Amino acid sequence: MYHNYNREPSYRHLNSYIHAILTLLKQHDRPLSFSEIKQSLNIDLTQNRQLFDILHKNPKITFTNDTLLFQPLYNIRSAEDLEKIMREAEGGLLLNDLLDSPVDVQPFIAELQKENKIFVLKDTDNSQIVFFNDTIQNTAAPQIKSLFHTISVPNYQDLIKELNTAGIKSGIQEEKKRYVVVQKSKVKKYKRKIKITNTHIKDLNLDLS
């Protein structure tokens, strides 16, 4: 997009020039030469000493020979970068300062909010402050978990034996097993004898015993 800042009176104010240059630097996210800035914005830094001095003192701009590079307050390129910055911060950070970056930081903020790692509060002046949620307990590393599951736990009898061998009292007295012998009473079996009284079926060879 081309703007003629030298011809339109509404863009002659220094703040407008500075805002336009900062926006251009963030859009490209790389060092821009004076000639590239002049070509894009029609602002000749070599001819405007006052603007040049103001930009040179701006902490968000890094000068290298005849190039300008936007330097954000926080270098955030990923959600991990944002988490590290928030973890090391002493207190909350202004949301606008985090968003003032050549990279879209908003998705990283949303991701950490979803994971409950950060939270955003509104101040009395309606500015939003981002805080790190330091109430979350860190979980053990996967290597530690794997090592824990490889440790075998001895059974009770072996544990008592090992403690006794080492001269350590377990504090638990092993109960002696008591065996009770239960005598089974013998039940006499009676063989029932059937006497054939029906003599008329005696000759049929039927075993009725």
List its salient traits.
6 strands, 8 helices, Arc Repressor Mutant, subunit A, 209 residues, 36% helix
Blueprint (SSEs and pairs):
Layout: H1 14-28, E1 32-33, H2 34-41, H3 49-57, E2 61-64, E3 67-70, H4 79-88, E4 93-94, H5 95-99, H6 106-114, E5 118-122, E6 128-132, H7 142-150, H8 156-165
Antiparallel strand pairs: 1-3, 2-3, 4-6, 5-6
Q: Mind explaining what this structure looks like?
A:
By secondary structure, the protein is α+β, with helices and mostly antiparallel strands. The chain has two domains: 11-70, Arc Repressor Mutant, subunit A; 73-162, Arc Repressor Mutant, subunit A (Orthogonal Bundle), CATH 1.10.10.10. The protein has eight helices and six strands, in the order H-E-H-H-E-E-H-E-H-H-E-E-H-H. It has helices at residues 14-28, 34-41, 49-57, 79-88, 95-99, 106-114, 142-150, 156-165, and strands at 32-33, 61-64, 67-70, 93-94, 118-122, 128-132. The strands form two sheets. The protein has a three-stranded antiparallel sheet with strand order 1-3-2. The chain has a three-stranded antiparallel sheet with strand order 4-6-5. Helix 4 packs across helix 6 (106-114). The longest helix is centred in the first third of the chain and has 15 residues, at 14-28. The chain starts with 13 loop residues before the first helix and ends in a 44-residue tail after the last helix.
